[in-house]
């Protein structure tokens, strides 16, 4: 018994050292798309230390009185969409050489371009209009990094398209698509980067290309793999949500030596991952030196009966926003949002929340649906039924993610 207690203490101390000192390393199997669980057992109930009470590492978590985005007199997240074909879009799809074929809806056949002309109008004030040169001055000698999934990658592409036009072609560059992809502007000594980390913590889905797997495995207690990439950025924009809604998740703790996994539903697994991420934020982010933002869940529009009772479609064919104020579809999970808000509120001024959920809920018209590149040929039966292969998750560009970046600009 004494030997078992000593071994447990050694494991605990090794784990704490690993979490507190990124330069310290132990032999730990790297998760990749070939990783498998040797066995699966029921969830033990183990929690992240930060979630259970005081933050690991002794970091201050702030208080409710600290600065939070959206607590000013004007709530820029509450408003309506106004058609404005004089000021929007903020750039042309064909003028951005870094546009993604997954988001270039006009290029892939969408001719109703009304989705590009909507402006977000807060109820009691005006949103600061995006100014390209002012944004570059904010970024001078800095690294802006988006960290998350393909929705955050869409926001990153939006930001690059918003910014690239004033940089001469020979003074800008884009690195090849990889785990970390970097757009550089020499004149400003600045970068706008995207880090593929759909679950924030280490997982077997961290390959930016080959990540669609039947069994999702995560290390729920550490963000060190990704944090080693993002920790030197000056402005960080995080997101995570949709990947947690794809069924149960397997947990492989860092101190597990036998490859045995525990299984947990997506929402609870997301809470664990957010706890590990929050522990990093609470101990490593000094708001006077580094800005950290968290972008809330991006809604989907998979069931048209939610905004048009009696119909059986989805976002396919939709050309206008929903005009019912307060509309909320099933694509945005309220319990998950409450769990995330609870974690974020404990971080106080260390993280700013950009609440895109409600304003994006109205935009059933803003998705690519069938107007995007599909990486595999579609069978005839699908082609004959457009709603069956419509993308009602991602967003056309120019479009909704440009407003997310206007919000980011507003608060920087």
UniProtKB/TrEMBL annotation:
Domain (Trichome birefringence-like N-terminal): give its ranges.
Answer: 72-126
Transmembrane helix listed as a keyword: yes
Using the record's annotation, list all stretches that form the Trichome birefringence-like C-terminal domain.
127-410
Cell location: Membrane
Pfam short name (any one): PC-Esterase
Enumerate the InterPro entries for this protein.
Answer: TBL, TBL_C, TBL_N
The keyword Heme belongs to this UniProt entry's keyword annotation: no
What keyword terms does UniProt attach to this protein? Membrane, Signal-anchor, Transmembrane, Transmembrane helix
What membrane topology was assigned to this protein in its record? Answer: Single-pass membrane protein
Primary place of residence? membrane
What family does the Swiss-Prot or TrEMBL record give for this protein?
Belongs to the PC-esterase family. TBL subfamily.
- Know the name of this protein? Protein trichome birefringence-like 35, variant 2
- Organism annotation: Stylosanthes scabra
